[in-house]
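This section describes the prediction task in plain terms. A model, or a person checking by hand, is given the sequence of a single protein chain and must write out its three-dimensional structure as a string of tokens. No templates, partner chains or ligands are provided. The sample shown here is typical of the held-out split.
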Amino acid sequence: MTSAYDRYRAADLDVPDGAWAWQLHGAGEDNMGKDDGPELLPVPTPDADHMLVRIDSVGLCFSDVKIMRQGGSHPKLYNRDLAHDPTRLGHEVSLTVIEVGDHLKDRYHAGQRLAVQPDIYQDGKSTAYGYTIPGGLIQYHLMGAEMLETDDGACLLPLPDSFGYAEASTLEPWGCVMAAYTQRRRLEPKGGGTMWIVGRPGDEREYDFSSGLDAPATIVLTDVPASVARLVEATSATVVVRDGIGTDDFQALVDELTDGTGFDDIVMLDPRSADTVGAVATHIARRGTLNMVGETALDGLVSTDVGRLHYDYTAYVGGRGPDIAASYGEARNRCDLRRQGVTVFVGAGGPMGLMHVQRAIQQADGPRTIVATEVSDERLKSLEDRLAHLAESNGCELITFNSQTSEVSLHDFVMGLTDDRGADDVVVSVPIADVMAEADTLMRSDGMLVFFAGVPNGTLAPVNLSEVYLDNAQYTGTSGLTIHDQQQVVDLATRGELSPGSIVGAVGGMRAAKDGLQALVDGSYSGKVLIFPQIDDLPLMGLDELEEKLPEVAAKLGPGNTWNGEVEKALFDSQLGG
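The expected answer:
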């Protein structure tokens, strides 16, 4: 006998006349839905340019909470009047195509399973599914050009049959994690850009610039050695000389020569003053580079805009010289975790932190010692339950540390673990500047610090940028993802090298969506909260609650009470009458 889950997977179920949906009618949780519940909307019939899709699962994210709280004032809603033009939350979505309009039948077919890539640009303008475009907290809805004809093509990823719905909903957050370890920074001088070379009066070193100096259209010189002036004069660039200017003059220079957008590339030669480096760094353009070349440490830490490292992909590169060009390029500037190294994950107990730790554990050429830090023993226990078996099977040492209860500081703990060298890599999933600054002290001189959690642009933290040019330390940050990052997750999972469903922490039906958002605010679950819209009345419950409430489902859980395809099948069969 065919089970309810099998019939569901085959899309062999009647489409109802109405679909339950959680619409956001304004800022605040009271404007989520109607009368504290979802609304029943008619299920539309697609025209030639649309297709009807069934939403199978939705992962909830703290970004959803931000939209709910901010309403139409959220940056991606562009002051939208939600009372008259509501939106829907839910961007971590797995869906099934139900009916296809005539103009789309060459690309899509009924029964096809897809995941959403929600970070969308239309004619250069940032939109997003679950933000500007109403998202997945609905049972059925139409899709058209807003998703299928974006600047990057269709924002839908075909799924293999082996993928469950919950796994597919984790592709968006997993894709963000993967993106954190792929090179998003520009690491060569920009063609046609504007470069500013800042020297130190009295420096007469003979510098070279073996490649890349022919890229800028304009080169601005401030107090450079004669050797550099000769190199620049030999190029075809427009040369502007501004000697003797101080930090108070920098903004006027930026306004004059870049219309206030900042320099595409900045080179600082023999820097000595941390304050000057900080003032210069303020004027890096989005996706710009700051190349520091020298052999003497700065006189202190640099107040560094850690928000821009995350959101604007500003790149800090450097070297000892004398070849200025040697600082650039991917060969010198790594973005992935050091093989066989020691990695510290700060804020490891939340859903995204857990994913970073799991990726490191399952990475074939990744670190061998992993320190997961958190300020909650409960979350650390959940992390150990969920991931210890993976660490053991992959030959990793997994160490947990709670700085709130330990007798030693995190810094002293890491130094003791590494014979005072520091960690090879530190990954920060906590959006607090002081935590980011502390993380910098945990890193060895040639290590990498990854700012995964975003803080607003303009947020400053003291950072040891001397190590960038003295020992090739790396500071990286990423925001968002591409569909290629999600495809990487699919490929790894298909090869058995990643188990994306292990991150699921709680599940619920359609009416539990609002409870799920509150659970994010309360930090109730360490893993991802998954909503199954086609299951109506399933209360929100953690996987550790399944044994009491749904024992036949709990029996299918994997090691550490982890989610898998068999659990999903058992859940759907229990709720849909299989």
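For orientation: The chain has 19 helices and 28 strands.
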